[in-house]
Amino acid sequence: MPLWQMLYREAYRMLCDRFEAEDAVQNLYVRLWEKRGELKNLIAPDAYCRTLLKNICIDRWRQIRAHDDDEQIGTDEITSYTPPETDSKEAEECLQHFLASLPQVQQKVIRMKINGCSFEEIEKVTGLQQTNIRVIISRIRKRFRKFYDNL
């Protein structure tokens, strides 16, 4: 438990999503509990936890990527999404409110994509890998659908 905040920050940095980061840290603690008998002789428990967390995050990226590949939905869908039975001003306000609720990194990525930037351009500006950018955009698209459906 003393490493929780550090581990959460690491997971959030890798996954760029609060809920995914919390799930990753939770999975880490479950794995640690399952291996509790083997952990007594660890020299650097924080390094061990970071390595295990990194592997959990990579597994999550792979699961998300596999799920996104199965969907075969374009990543530009959010930019062309027009809510039914609303005027364009209301739709724009809805989109702006949604974007303001996102973390800074996600806001930057989606705003660049909406403005027509390629994945290569976004990668150069943000320093994120293209696979991470695609995952972020996919998550934003899904969150926007839920956000709009709840209005």
Description:
Mean pLDDT is 76; it is low at 72-86. It is elongated, with a radius of gyration of 18 Å. By secondary structure, the protein is an all-alpha fold. The chain has 8 helices and no strands. It folds into 2 domains: 4-71, Orthogonal Bundle (Rna Polymerase Sigma Factor, Chain: A), CATH 1.10.1740; 77-149. α1 crosses α2. Helix content is 74%, strand content 0%.
Produce the secondary structure layout.
Layout: H1 4-15, H2 18-34, H3 45-71, H4 77-80, H5 88-100, H6 104-114, H7 119-126, H8 130-149
Short account of what is shown:
The protein is built from 8 helices and no strands.
Largest sheet: none
Q: What is the approximate shape?
A: elongated
Q: Would you report the number of β strands?
A: 0
- Class from helix and strand fractions: mainly alpha
Q: Helix content range of the residues, please?
A: over 70%
On the 0-100 scale, what is the average pLDDT? 76
Instruction: Provide the gyration radius in Å.
Output: 18 Å
Number of domains: 2
Approximate strand percentage: under 5%
What is the number of helical segments per DSSP (H or I, 4+ residues)? 8
Pick out the low-confidence regions. Answer: 72-86
Q: How would you spell out the order of helices and strands? A: HHHHHHHH
Query: How far is the N terminus from the C terminus?
Result: 38 Å
Oligomeric composition of the shown chains? single chain
